[in-house]
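Hey, can you fold this one?
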Amino acid sequence: MDALMLARWQFGITTIYHFFFVPLTLGLSLLVAIFQTAYVRTDSDTYKRMTQFWGKLFLINFAMGVVTGIVQEFQFGMNWSEYSRFVGDIFGAPLAIEALLAFFLESTFVGVWIFGWGRLNKRLHLASIWLVVVGSNISALWILIANSFMQQPVGYTLRNGRAEMTDFGALLTNPNLWVQWPHVFTAGVATASFFVIGISAWHLLRKKGDLDLFRKSASIAMATAIIASMLVALVGHTQAQHMVQTQPMKMASAEALWNSESPASFSIFTIGDENANKDVFAIRLPTLLSILSYNNTSGEVKGINDLQTEYEKTYGPGDYIPPVWVVYWSFRAMVGAGGLMIVLSLYGLYLVISRKLSTRSWYLKLMLVAMALPYIANSSGWIMTEIGRQPWIVFGLMTTEKGVSTAVGAESVLISVVIFTLLYGALAVVDVYLLAKYARDDASAKPENSEEADLVGAY
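Sure. Predicted structure:
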């Protein structure tokens, strides 16, 4: 492999690993804040123990997310220096604001929340966890402002071979941002909900420990799971319609649509020949893709072959087709996992309402396995988003090939890939060990002075 391919593998490996933690941090901070709000309003000891139990798991996940996230920004300078030089004027402001404002806010109030138990009054202490929720999600917003420029460049001018910012407001109002961020936020809430349901299911199956805590946790998480899962699908649909307009090659690849169709058919199952740019075998539903893309039965969806011809006229000779099979199957993995989440959470809500949740052991066992569904959906969605944009690193402006560092050899990148892979593997073992250790806690009532020690230990 050359330096370009190795740099792409390294970024993919480290980013997917980091993205395991981000959605759970976004969503679990919200659920912990909801549990603590219920505690402050009702003075119920069960809600207090719920806040502390899930708060410990939130802190472990938050810490791992911070550790793995730092590496991402270092890679821009090490392996992607040409890219950094090209977008530095654009990325500087949002990444600086994310670090100095949002992450500072988030980290500061995480500390206030940990050490504030018993020292702050209840309402001030509650405010600290809500500020963590705000900081976490604003942090994600600024990262997505930068990413949205890669998907849909706005507010810039090209000068001296660089993209220079001319309109900061355009970055904030980038249409891609306002279909992408809601998708990430709702996916985070769905991830956290399934996480809480899965661990609660394990305790309910054992029938030991503080079962009232886990029944209430599962009930609240079931309600947030169905709301968040349905909203993910809804905003995902909006995002897909935006993609048809701004990155039609990504949608054509996600549907293995080789030639333009009007009305366009939706692929149920396709085996394609990427060398010949055609189907080998396909089952398609007529007209459905046009309905999904335009909310009517007559819209044209452009195909891969026609877009390749169009892009060659616009950008010059080259291959503008991403790896179709990767985009096609990652799209289906995301949608399939998301669909299962909706079905499972709908049935779970029925069990909660009919007070049968604790008696359906087969469903509780299934929800243990279902904890993996949001992670499958999140990772495959990210892969589709980033691979589907190829060969562009900044759509229409810079190819990935031109963004790699020219002064870093393949041997150096290979060494760093091996080191990061081993290091992240070790971190994965530590993370699973810590999460399992604290998740197995039966959360029975403990002495009052154990609260802070537990939270600090988890962090």
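Strands lie at 156-159, 162-165, 266-273, 278-285, 392-394, 398-399. Let me know if you want another pass with a different chain boundary.
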